[in-house]
């Protein structure tokens, strides 16, 4: 959260109740009749002194608040209270850290600010975390530092799984018109934080529907959640307590600008294109919630509407010097105004993924080629060994055959033949053999 002269960037957190005890400055001995339509009761100036107001009665202001509650202009007091509970129901709220290099510890124990994981490696946040406008419109740049994104709903003391931001795209409409407008930045991560499909985004048509139906919206952030001001301290009060360790949330509804202006009693025409939220005397948001998310459940699915709102004349947990006592006007630019840079980010990531795939494919192809060459070499070596073995077996068989033949020949050569004469009547035959025998019918002579 940053404190501006006319606008205090904030988001969800922990705040004073709508109907907390009013300060003594509201007291007036003479009751006045209050008529909102005729503006009979003076309303806060656009730049009031904290907790001091012009002569107007406690009766008048209580009547205004009572009328607002009767008309449903303000949400129930239970929606704004100290020590708002930790809420882990938003699966995309993330802490953002300012580290120049990866770290396994977080000495501060806090997130620098908050963000929303739109898809696996695209994070939405607030541009004023990069630079902000002074009351004269001049720009003050934040010190250049690395950005790391923590896992959704992780504790700010747990650095497991953090991923470095490799690119940022700041809204082309980020500007100052007595209030910072177009306050939006996209962080692109060097790799997937988790596997996450893109979340549904608000459209102008759905915005009208949410306003008309007074649908619940919810703001999540990793900011401060305790009142900075101690008894007797005057605004603005210094930070004394650590920010939350896990995200906290606050619910409300979207309003028309005219409705919010009717509550606070002053005009802010430069907010005509903003999403408007007004939640009572203290407003929304504290330091560190900046860049968190404002979401709703639409048709059963999580839908992102905008960042956590900036606060014009809100309380900001006691950080604002311009608290109007009525909660100020909380506002933020709808996400559909940033369709151009969201498309740019998605195209960049698609190109990033394509390059990574090409690199991975190249590595895989090189690995496959190496493996094939190794397999071919192994196959060739095996074939050579098989041939050597086959040749050896053939040679051994040939040698064995030759040996057998030589042996047979030798044995045959060793045997001595003799000749006998066989006769049959007047016929006689000579038979020569190692063991000669007369044919049948013949007899040896």
Spell out the blueprint of helices and strands.
Elements: E1 8-9, H1 58-70, E2 93-98, E3 113-119, E4 122-125, E5 131-133, E6 139-141, E7 147-149, E8 163-170, E9 175-176, E10 180-181, E11 185-189, E12 200-201, H2 204-213, E13 217-221, E14 248-252, H3 257-264, E15 275-277, E16 293-298, E17 301-307, E18 310-312, E19 329-332, H4 339-414, E20 418-424, E21 427-433, E22 443-444
Parallel strand pairs: 12-17
Antiparallel strand pairs: 1-18, 2-3, 2-7, 3-4, 4-11, 5-6, 7-8, 8-11, 9-10, 13-14, 13-16, 15-19, 16-17, 18-19, 20-21, 20-22
On the 0-100 scale, what is the average pLDDT?
Answer: 82
Termini, distance in Å?
Answer: 140 Å
Q: What's the architecture of the largest domain in CATH terms?
A: Beta Barrel
Gross morphology is rod-shaped
Alpha plus pi helix count: 4
* CATH topology grouping of the largest domain: Thrombin, subunit H
CATH superfamily caption of the largest domain:
Trypsin-like serine proteases
Question: Helix amount, in percent?
Answer: 10-25%
SSE pattern:
EHEEEEEEEEEEEHEEHEEEEEHEEE
Number of strands: 22
What is the strand arrangement across the widest sheet?
2-3-4-11-8-7
Q: Supply the number of structural domains.
A: 3
Indicate the low-confidence ranges by residue numbers.
Answer: 1-82
**How many whole angstroms does the radius of gyration measure?**
45 Å
Largest sheet data: 6 strands, antiparallel, barrel
Highest CATH level, the class of the largest domain: Mainly Beta
Structural class: alpha+beta
What is the percentage of strand-forming residues?
A: 15-25%
């Amino acid at each position: 959260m940053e404190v501006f002269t006319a606008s205090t960037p904030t988001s969800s957190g922990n705040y004073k109740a709508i109907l907390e005890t009013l300060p003594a400055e509201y007291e007036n001995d003479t009751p006045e009749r209050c008529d909102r339509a005729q503006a009979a009761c003076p309303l806060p100036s656009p730049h009031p002194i904290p907790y001091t107001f012009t002569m107007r009665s406690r009766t008048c202001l209580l009547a205004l608040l009572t009328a607002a509650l009767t008309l449903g202009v303000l949400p129930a007091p239970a929606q704004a209270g100290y020590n708002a509970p930790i809420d882990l129901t938003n699966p995309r709220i993330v802490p953002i850290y300012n580290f120049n290099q990866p770290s396994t510890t977080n000495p501060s124990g806090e997130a620098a600010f908050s963000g929303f994981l739109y898809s696996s490696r695209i994070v939405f946040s607030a541009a004023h975390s990069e630079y902000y406008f002074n009351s004269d419109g001049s720009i003050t740049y934040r010190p250049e530092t690395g950005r790391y994104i923590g896992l959704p709903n992780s504790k700010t003391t747990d650095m497991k799984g953090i991923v470095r931001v490799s690119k940022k795209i700041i809204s082309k409409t980020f500007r100052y018109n007595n209030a910072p407008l177009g306050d939006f930045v996209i962080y692109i991560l060097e790799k997937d934080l988790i596997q996450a499909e893109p979340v549904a985004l608000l459209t102008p048509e759905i915005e009208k529907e949410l306003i008309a139906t007074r649908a619940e919206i919810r703001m999540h952030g990793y900011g401060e959640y305790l009142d900075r001001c101690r008894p007797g301290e005057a605004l603005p009060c210094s930070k004394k307590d650590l920010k939350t360790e896990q995200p906290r949330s606050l619910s409300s509804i979207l309003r028309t600008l005219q409705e919010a202006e009717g509550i606070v009693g002053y005009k802010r025409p430069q907010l005509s294109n903003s999403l408007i939220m007004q939640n009572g005397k203290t407003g929304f948001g504290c330091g560190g919630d900046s860049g968190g998310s404002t979401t709703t459940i639409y048709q059963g699915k999580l839908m992102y509407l905008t960042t956590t709102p900036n606060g014009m004349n809100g309380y900001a947990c006691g950080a604002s010097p311009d608290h109007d006592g009525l909660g100020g006007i909380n506002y933020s630019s709808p996400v559909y105004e940033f369709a151009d840079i969201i498309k740019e980010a998605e195209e960049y990531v698609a190109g990033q993924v394509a390059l990574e795939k090409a690199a991975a494919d190249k590595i895989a192809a090189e690995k496959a080629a190496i493996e094939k060459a190794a397999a071919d070499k192994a196959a060739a070596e095996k074939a050579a060994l098989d041939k050597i073995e086959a040749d050896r077996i053939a040679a051994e068989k040939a040698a064995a055959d030759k040996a057998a033949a030589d042996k047979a020949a030798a044995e045959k050569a060793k045997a001595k033949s003799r000749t006998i004469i066989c006769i049959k009547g007047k016929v006689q035959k000579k038979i020569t053999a190692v063991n000669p025998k007369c044919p049948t019918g013949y007899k040896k002579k």
